[in-house]
Amino acid sequence: FNFEDETPTTHFDTFPAAILTVFQILTGEDWNAVMYHGIESQGGVKGGMFTSIYFIILTLFGNYTLLNVFLAIAVDNLANAQELTKDEEEQEEAINKKLTLQKTKEGKEVSPMSATNISITS
């Protein structure tokens, strides 16, 4: 990176920049370049060993946590969808029962004298 003040865009100097840097690492967007900048800022390979361990742990546990959050949201939405379909099925059954009762009542009212309406031809 060729910046005027030689500070990369991803750094931990300020709190907002640190949040954006951690977000970039957790999303996997060029996290290894950020790690190398962190190692260089701590004195190179020998002095930056703990920095590299921090980035690896952040990547592993951060991605694991994000995966768990995503799966929890997905499972919750699927459970809500199943509850909605059960409620819809119960409502549909209730409507079908009402319609069946109405048809049987209408059929009983018409059926006793329906013979007078039938014309017999030979």
From TrEMBL:
Protein name: Voltage-dependent N-type calcium channel subunit alpha-1B-like
Pfam families in UniProt: Ion_trans
Biological process terms in GO annotation: calcium ion import across plasma membrane; chemical synaptic transmission
UniProt keyword terms in alphabetical order: Calcium, Calcium channel, Calcium transport, Coiled coil, Ion channel, Ion transport, Membrane, Transmembrane, Transmembrane helix, Transport, Voltage-gated channel
Principal subcellular localization: membrane
Compartment annotation: Membrane
All copies of domain Ion transport, residue ranges: 5-85
Coiled-coil stretches: 71-98
SUPFAM superfamilies: Voltage-gated potassium channels (SSF81324)
TM stretches of this protein: 53-75
MF terms in GO: high voltage-gated calcium channel activity
Highest taxon above the source species: Eukaryota
Membrane topology note: Multi-pass membrane protein
UniProt organism field: Notothenia coriiceps
Gene Ontology CC annotations of this record: neuronal cell body; synapse; voltage-gated calcium channel complex
